[in-house]
Amino acid sequence: MIWRCPICRTATDSAADRHFPFCSERCRRSDLGAWASGQYVISEPALEFDDTDFVTREEEENET
Length: 64
Ligand SMILES: [Zn+2]
What we know:
Elements: E1 2-4, E2 11-13, H1 25-37, H2 52-63
Antiparallel strand pairs: 1-2
Zinc ion binds at residues 5, 7-8, 10, 22-24, 27.
């Protein structure tokens, strides 16, 4: 699977790149740094946590 590094947009290969989804350790560490400082906005489809069902259920409970 070809992906793109979320830091620099370089193409990466999930089967071949051990830093996947990052192109390199440099970008991987850059991402961790962004997480730690709270600057990172989640935009990673492969790791997306589907919380829409939870939100919908919560709204329904409030209505009844
Ligand atoms: Zn990169």
